């Protein structure tokens, strides 16, 4: 097995520091998030910065070959997209490095390292708590943030409740950091349908959609009713497909359980 380590040249670290961290990843017990597919842990670097390490699981047998020879790994895309977002003036946890492990014929695990951002909340908190302080204002500013992404031609395909970190800067000002960056499209321009679809994963609540759509309508100079209808229709379609998929998974688990 070989190990490829790519360090951000503008960051104060070396492969000699990163390699033992990755080699001992399984023994790190300080989790930021623990999932079936991917996990995120945190460590302190020699420069006293707190870094997070996202570990991507070994892909399936087909993708072992695809990622080895034809497609950039999720870790590499996360790293490169983070650098591109920063170059375009958007916030994301500062990229430190990515690491890939592979054999001559197969791709194995990969890791993405970035600085830890101490966020006050994510979009998810507002989905679950209708009484969150200053909730409407945060949603309006989040809509401006998304509009700026769209104007820059950035289609964040995982624009979902947990993937925007929100930092309170002052009483009425918030910063937004994108995370989980490995699925993005970059366009010369984005049409109305693509923009509306990009909101579809965020919330099942029409009240939230109406706040965002009304604000977005002002920004693109369209009637608010038209934008509300378009955004809500995209949201309903996503929710329908999501619940269909969940029902199929539940049915499959039940069938397996009977065997």
Overall, the morphology is globular
Name the structural class: alpha+beta
Strand count, sense and closure of the main sheet?
A: 6 strands, antiparallel
Helix tally equals: 8
Unreliable parts: none
CATH class of the largest domain: Mainly Alpha
- Describe the strand arrangement of the main beta sheet, using strand numbers: 1-5-6-4-3-2
The span between the termini is 38 Å
Instruction: Indicate the mean pLDDT.
Output: 94
How would you sum up this structure, described in words?
The chain is α+β, with helices and mostly antiparallel strands. The protein folds into two domains: 2-115, Phosphorylase Kinase, domain 1 (2-Layer Sandwich); 121-243, Transferase(Phosphotransferase), domain 1 (Orthogonal Bundle). It is built from eight helices and eleven strands. It has helices at residues 15-23, 61-69, 74-87, 123-128, 135-151, 192-197, 206-220, 224-258, and strands at 2-7, 31-34, 38-44, 50-56, 95-102, 107-115, 121-122, 154-156, 164-170, 173-178, 184-186. It has a six-stranded antiparallel beta sheet with strand order 1-5-6-4-3-2, sandwiched between helices. A three-stranded antiparallel beta sheet has the order 7-9-10. Strand 5 (95-102) and strand 6 (107-115) form a beta hairpin. It starts with a strand and ends with a helix.
């Amino acid at each position: 097995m070989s190990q490829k380590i790519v360090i951000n040249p503008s960051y104060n670290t070396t492969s000699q520091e990163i390699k033992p961290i990755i080699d001992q990843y399984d023994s790190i017990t300080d989790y930021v998030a623990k999932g079936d597919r991917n996990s995120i842990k945190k460590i302190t670097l020699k420069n006293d910065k707190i870094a997070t390490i996202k570990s991507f699981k070994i892909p399936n047998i087909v993708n072992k070959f695809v990622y080895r020879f034809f497609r950039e790994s999720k870790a590499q895309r996360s790293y490169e997209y983070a650098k591109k977002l920063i170059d375009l003036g958007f916030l994301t946890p500062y990229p430190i490095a990515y690491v890939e492990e592979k054999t001559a014929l197969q791709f194995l695990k990969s890791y993405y390292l970035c600085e830890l951002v101490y966020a006050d909340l994510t979009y998810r908190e507002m989905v679950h708590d209708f009484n969150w302080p200053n909730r409407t204002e945060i949603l309006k500013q989040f809509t401006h943030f998304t509009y700026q992404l769209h104007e820059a031609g950035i289609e964040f395909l995982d624009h979902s409740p947990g993937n925007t970190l929100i930092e309170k800067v002052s009483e009425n000002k918030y910063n937004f950091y994108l995370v989980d960056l490995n699925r993005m499209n970059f366009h010369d321009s984005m049409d109305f349908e693509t923009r509306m679809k990009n909101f579809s994963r965020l919330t099942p609540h029409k009240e939230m959609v109406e706040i965002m759509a009304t604000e977005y309508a002002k920004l693109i100079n369209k009637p608010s009713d038209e934008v509300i209808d378009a955004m809500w229709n995209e949201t309903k379609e996503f929710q329908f497909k999501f619940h269909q998929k969940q029902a199929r998974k539940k049915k499959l688990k039940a069938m397996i359980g009977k065997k």
